[in-house]
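Batch job 17 of 40 flagged for manual review because the log was empty.
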Amino acid sequence: MSQYRAVEGVVNDWHLVHLGRFAMGGAGLIYAEATAVEDRGKRTHGDLGLWNDAQAEALKPITSFLKREGAVPGVQLSHAGRKASERRPWHGETPVDAEDLKQRQEMPWQPIGPSPVAYADGWPVPTEMTVEDIYEVIAAFGSAAKRSYEAGFEIIEIYAAHGFLIHQFLSPVSNKRADGWGGSLENRQRFAVEVAKSVRANWPEHLPLAFRLSATDWLEDVLELSDTVTISRALKDAGVDMIDCSSGGIGGRDRPKRMTIEQGFQAPFAEEVRREAGISTMAVGFLWDAEFCEELVREGKADMIALARELLADPNWPLHAADQLSSEETKSLWPIEFGWWLQRRDRLLKKLGFR
């Protein structure tokens, strides 16, 4: 979950504590938030970045801490495309304008996209990317991948969902191009595939590469689950190891009428992509019950489970899930600085008959 607390794309103590508490809470893999591969590709002025070496250097203490606490540090590389130059959510989640310059000394910048189609009413029309722009961004993903390794990350996820630039190329809602980067699905997926190749070329072969896709746009006759299966097969051929299956976000701020939200409502996407594309998947979205999550993995519907807001509410969710799923004593899984005290308390409460 983006924190919007970076300055010029550089992390600070907030990010160390924010991400570190998940490692202390038992999470196995911890993704840093959406991290821009170039300055114009950040969503807000507070986004993380990996477009220069100083940003990578500042991340090293965080990845080092996560690894010392037994977690795998991951990074989510992104480019906002036409969703760039946006206010932080608590400032309105609307385009940056003169008011932001007056109140926060933050200037708007010109977004880019596959076509000159605005994200929503009142949003700036992005500059249509030239072929030179396209290859420049593809190279920026590769450079950010190299910096990710230097910063100490052990898995990369490319953020190609929720209306960000790669999703903008994939979806006919935002891609109206008539050249080799638009039109047919094969052409629309070309940008994603080239990004995957660029990252894979700059990322060690033994380390995993994931893609986060919006499995459906939740709109009629645009990007559907069957398309995502096709895209996932192409990404697998390009060196991608896992698909993180989310959905929606391509245009506007209203929830599409086709979207029905319930616990695990996106998990069937992970199951379908896993089965039909022959690639590992991660289920995400409206997941909070440990039994429900465990069943998804046990029954082969997904290979991994991702939680975000639930861990913001309870950073110790993985450890509490272990308690829920096991009949054995699980306080030994906690950091010893916590677990030792909690074991003593549990024994006392049991002896006194309180629990």
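Reviewer: the log was empty due to a logging misconfiguration, but the result itself is present. Strands lie at 29-36, 48-49, 72-78, 112-113, 127-128, 155-160, 209-214, 242-246, 280-284, 304-306. Unflagging and moving on to job 18.
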